[in-house]
Amino acid sequence: MSSQIQPNQERRILNPSGTNNSTQAQQYTKGELNIDQLDADPTTQFDIWFQHAQKENVHQPETVTLSTAELPSGRVSARMVYLKEADKNGFVIYSNWGTSRKAADVASNPQAALTFWWHELERQVRVEGSCSRMTDEESQVYYDTRIRGSRLGAWASRQSSVLTNRAELEGQVAEAERKFEGREEIPVPEFWGGLRVRPEMVEFWQGRPSRLHDRFRYTRDGEGGWKIDRLSP
């Protein structure tokens, strides 16, 4: 059976969320980006933009979409997570690496992508690179900063596993509470911790009118530095 839309079928086109009651897509007018504004290192440039996002009260600028793909099927999955660290070694998020979908994806394909969207500034940052697990010692440093409930929750949740009902999850939490009753120092679970994405490509995107956005892509030059290219929008 043909998948083409037949003449008598209704074709639904979503109206963009414009401004001033317009049905036209919103125009991006808050800034521009030129190569002379960019630092030679993308992690430094990311830090500049991130600090600006914080100063301008962007809502939770650390929120990022983590995309992974399973091999050999090639099926892609994505989810919103929090960035917790960013330096010259890469971008770090924390999660369950025993039962989660992302854990299965990374086990078969250690490549990932991160996408930040800062609406208030009409800016986007994209990162692509290889993944590596952080050591328990490295993960413990961040784990110790979490509230007790979140630390116990990491022990309790079999992330992405099927639950019969909410009571089952609450029972797992109660079990973790009994396990560490009276203890403030709780070890990081062996199945939980940090994942570092080492960037091979970083793109900085600034919205412009008429969808003629400014885009600059950093790629490694093979000599320890970075090459910067302007991309067509």
Automatic annotation (TrEMBL):
Where does the record place the Pyridoxine 5'-phosphate oxidase dimerisation C-terminal domain? 192-233
Transmembrane segments annotated in the record for this chain: none
Q: Any idea which UniProt keywords this protein has? A: Flavoprotein, FMN, Oxidoreductase
- GO BP terms: pyridoxine biosynthetic process
Under what name is this protein listed? pyridoxal 5'-phosphate synthase
Q: Which superkingdom is the protein from?
A: Eukaryota
Q: Which Gene3D superfamilies match?
A: Electron Transport, Fmn-binding Protein, Chain A
Q: What cofactor does its activity depend on?
A: FMN
| Top EC group | oxidoreductase
In terms of PROSITE patterns, this protein maps to: PYRIDOX_OXIDASE
Q: Write the lineage as a comma-separated list.
A: Eukaryota, Fungi, Dikarya, Ascomycota, Pezizomycotina
List residues of the Pyridoxamine 5'-phosphate oxidase N-terminal domain: 51-177
Cite the EC number: 1.4.3.5
Record region (Disordered): 1-25
Read off the InterPro entries from this record: Pyridox_Oxase (IPR000659), Pyridox_Oxase_CS (IPR019740), Pyridox_Oxase_N (IPR011576), Pyridoxamine_oxidase_dimer_C (IPR019576), Split_barrel_FMN-bd (IPR012349)
* GO molecular function per UniProt: FMN binding; pyridoxamine phosphate oxidase activity
Q: Which Pfam families match?
A: PNP_phzG_C (PF10590), PNPOx_N (PF01243)
Where along the chain is composition biased (Polar residues)? 16-25
| Pathway recorded for this protein | Cofactor metabolism; pyridoxal 5'-phosphate salvage; pyridoxal 5'-phosphate from pyridoxine 5'-phosphate: step 1/1; Cofactor metabolism; pyridoxal 5'-phosphate salvage; pyridoxal 5'-phosphate from pyridoxamine 5'-phosphate: step 1/1
